[in-house]
Amino acid sequence: MKILIDLQCCQTEAQSRGMGRYSLSLAKEIVRIGGEHDFMFLLNWHYLDKSADLITEIAKLDDLGNVILHDYPSVQYDWHERQRREQVANVLRNDRIETVSPDVYHISSVFEGESVYGAAAAFIDFPKPPIIRSATLYDFIPLLYPDKYLTDWPVALWYKRTSSLIPQLDVGLAISDATKKDAERLFHMKPERVVNIFGSVADHFRILPASEAHRGAVWRRFAPGQKFILYVGGPDFRKNLDGTLEAFAIANKELADKYKLLIVYDIKGAEALALREKAARLGVAPLVVTTGFVSDDELVELYNAASLFVFPPLYEGLGLPVIEAMRCGAPVLVGDNSSLTEIVDDPAYRFDTTKPADMAKSMVRALTREGELQRMRAYSRERAALFTWEKSARRALDAWEETYAARRGRKTPSAAGRVPRIAMFTPLPSAKSGIADYSAEFLPALSKFASFEIFVDDVAEVETYFDDMPIWHHSQFPFKAHLYDAIVYQLGNSPFHHYMLPYIESFPGVVVIHDAYLGYLSYDPGNPDAFIRRMIQEHGGPARAIVLDGEGGDRTARSLVDALPCSATATHRSLGVIVHSRFARNVLVGAARPGAAPQIAVLPQYRARPPRETTPSRAQARETLAIAPDSLVIVSLGHVAHTKGVLELIEAFTRSTAAKSGKAQLILVGELEGGANHDSPYAREVLRAIGDRSDIHITGYVEKEDYDLYIAAADIGVQLRTLTRGETSRAILDLLTSGTPLVYNRMGSSAELPSEVGVALEGYASADIADALDALAGDPQLRQTYREAALRYCDETLDPDKVGARFVQTVVAMTARAETCGPKIVSKTIARLLRDAPITRELVQDIARAYVRQERSEIAPRLLIDVTHIREGDLETGVQRVVRELTRAAYGWSDAKVRPQAFAYTDAGLIFADDYAQRCGARAAVEAEDMRFGALDFRPFDKILMADGTWHLADWMREPLARLGAIGGEAFGLVHDILPLQHPELFEDHVKISVTNWLTLLLEKGSGLICTSQSGADGLIEWITGSGVTPRRGLRIGYARLGADFSSRVDVFTPITAATSDLAQRENLFLMVGTIEPRKGHDYVLDAFERLWASGVDATLVFVGKAGWSVDSLLQRFENHEEKGKRFFYLGFVPEADMARLYQSASATIVASIAEGFGLPIYEAAHFGSPLLLSDLPVFQELGGEHARYFAAGSSAQLAAALREQLARGPIPSKGVSAPSWADCAGRIFEFLDGEHVYRQF
């Protein structure tokens, strides 16, 4: 089923209350256990800016592509205008729902408090059937106590109007039996339509170990040195706080001030004053304590520390605090009413909530009777175990599945009782297509249920005609399209269906897909680049990765055809899709965003039993084929190819007892791959395996008459697959309909066959195949059992009349359902609603804008990568190298959920930076003509990765980030380092100010910061803690060590310069690589070598790197050094091949920074086997570990000592230093953006 869950109540203020928490927990568990279904989530566009936590949770469940957004003009107007606008909102919401065609639409809360005066539009009606309308039913307390809750007339009108929708529900998921009975009593709902699913609480509600029970000692803040009775709830009259105070005062007379009453509620103002006054009147004011707001963790501690938990509401839908307390092992007393009796089924632990004296009596008994609290704690543990989200989710799914099954069993009436008229696009014989044959055989059965007209590519080539079924050339269809009730397109993976594609787009209909992979349908060998571009647009990174690694042209196009479904073009614009297996359905859904995918139905391929009067008997077939009557014949049907497990079958047959008996033969009915000359390695391997055996035969290609003879002659059929593309095996169906005992392996669609129809293998191991053959060969009764089961399955499931009736019913229903929604229906409905009142231009514009926004929300969200600086010019700095490699990795990422888009900041705003992505090789060459320029607009759930060091633009970015957050987007920063904040003396003041502003912006508005090392993350967390900036709640800190693919860019055959060759010959060669900057330590490294040279040590020092800033005096020192050109060399830029040789020849690579964000030269040096001499910065120790020698940063004396030690003792090998690839680095960053690899969360 396709299930749409409305989670609006997890976006509004209800998200932090019981309703919101319940809804999200239930949804998460339903998704977890309902893997066979497709799930989507409906969110309200108006609350996206308040939905960051919810969006994070949904992203953990699946791709945000499963989120459907609905939008509408603002409803926050005076009462009468609000009513009018809510009707418009209701039309737009229902259209949005019906457009995505769910089988089930579940509303997590029908009653949304913000529908009275807030931004949420109230429900006025629900989507139309056949959508199953479902809702969680919490309680109907306002109807039970109208004098308390429905005294404000707008509230009363809203609640009663919304309540009137409850009878429309097909499924009500009540959270208790009490609520179920109320729904049946108040709304006359049939008992079978209301299901009690109960509920549970979050896992962090638990019994804490003794060492944790008072961790943080939260309870001591409220009840120092004293035991306490815990009450959770507010002053709402139903929560019975007044009764609790009175009961506590009565009980305290016997408890003698030994216990305090701890009230967990953030009570303020007049309510707090009234509470204090009442406690004072009762004489217990010093013993009554209110906590104010407490976190979940603090609440868990209080439940664990409480002597007794009391829950006294007058009425409760479920009473989640009771389950929370029980989960934490607290002794529990509850009111003897409503759902509370279902949670606490022992009357001994219940009291009359209308009588404070009865509550007090229960308190005293629990706290004074010997052993009572221990018994109550044991009872709490026992009862709490009964309430699990898994049970609740399973009950919900069962209710939906049962309703769906019942609804599918009903017939869809044809329009006005007449026979539907259907246009079908399909090839017909003489086209050499399996689908042509299939359609020709199936159409007579279909014609019993509908009137068909056929549209083909070439009428002159058609060999098969039907009575009362006209066949037309497809060009005539546009003139006849209005005549049909539905349109069907039969699609397969071949050019025979190519003529249909323009019509699918212009005249959407129901598409029947016979192959899940459809690349050859739209592939044009004469224009491979157009096909490649389309595949990149449809499949994103997975397609681009193939293209970037390929040779281009036809060969790359064929690689895409083989690797990807390529089905979006043919299916996404259709009204519905019919496939023949759940496997094919899953392939299609996996290649699409579920919200954009059409209705999809799974119908089996029809297969009729062979007519008895024209089917040869076993004896006749054997006589014709010259097969001995007593021979055990095993057949395998179809192309003898590498995808069919033929070698394994041959080996299995050879080792089988049946073969050794001398009375069995294996016949491979089909042509061996490789053509007439068997010109393929696999074909030659098959022939070698057969050798000179006379009991194994390959027939070669056979006509249908002979094909049927082999089936009739067979005792056992074997059909194996080593690879599937979603096709349905015609050979398996032919064997089943003939009653031939079958051995097959469970792959693709064959995994969905009922187990009783044949011997199902999990793989295609020869030993398992041999065992299956011997089991069947040696047991005629077993063969008969399988024969009967197969024929029964065919009669019940594959019968042409049964399949034909379902086919027509499905096509008509899909078409009718699609025609109930869309822009024409919306415009007509809204025009009718508004015809009696003035309509402003503003309202019309708002309606149009809302409709377009909710329709555009199906477009996949993107990962927006900042390339502002590098787009202007690649200076080959470390930061820009990271940006360049991340951009390349993102565009070729194998996960299609990562939809990258490079962008840049300009004075005009954000713009597309396709030109840079193209220039750096992130985009494929064929994409050059599709480059976009100009302004970039945000989409819902876009993510920005600010990676390019645009610190000085922090103030300018504030407004775009606010816009992004308002539509559910997120901003992340890649923190290369915070050296200007840690070492301000090394940087100019404006740099420190820019970096501070940039970090502050992301701490306040962003979702996460990812550093380039664990050390960097530690440093960032330390700075945040001391900065005085309060991070946004939930802000994540992570790290991903940078990659290094240095070797992949070096051609070993590239010659090196003579100068590099001379240096590489030197015995004690020490190398230092990196930009010349003050913090890199070149100055003191040169000092250290001067010490060595002065002491007679013969060593060569080589600096490689561009000149940075503030190094004029240092460069002058290099230029004037007396060892220049002798034992000291400053090379500036060095070609990569030369660089590799220097690393390989160096006695050690020195990385001497006094402050550093990472240190890529460490990875590069280690890759080429150069030993490492590193300053003792934490990040260097993180990268080098025990595989390097360290010295104190900034100390020339210690460096000189380390050099002498190496020369004396030899180097420490660096081979243990292993760099991640850029792909690994990028993958960790992308996963961090999705909520993984969180190092610290605020």
The fraction of residues in strands falls at: 5-15%
The largest sheet, given as strand count, sense and whether it forms a barrel, is: 8 strands, mixed
Uncertain regions spanning at least 5 consecutive residues:
none
Find the CATH superfamily of the largest domain: Glycogen Phosphorylase B
E-strand count: 40
CATH architecture of the largest domain: 3-Layer(aba) Sandwich
CATH topology of the largest domain: Rossmann fold
- Calculate the mean pLDDT score and round it: 90
- What class do helices, strands and sheet pairing give? alpha/beta
- Report the principal-axis shape: globular
User: How much helix is in the residues?
Assistant: 40-55%
**What is the total domain count?**
6
Which strands sit side by side, in order, in the main sheet? 29-28-27-30-31-32-33-40
**Count of individual helical segments:** 52
Spatial separation of the terminal alpha carbons: 39 Å
- CATH class annotation of the largest domain: Alpha Beta
Alpha-carbon Rg, integer: 37 Å
What does this structure look like?
This protein has about 1250 residues and is of the alpha/beta class. The two termini are about 40 Å apart. About 45% of the residues lie in helices and about 15% in strands.
Short précis:
The protein is of the alpha/beta class and 1242 residues long.
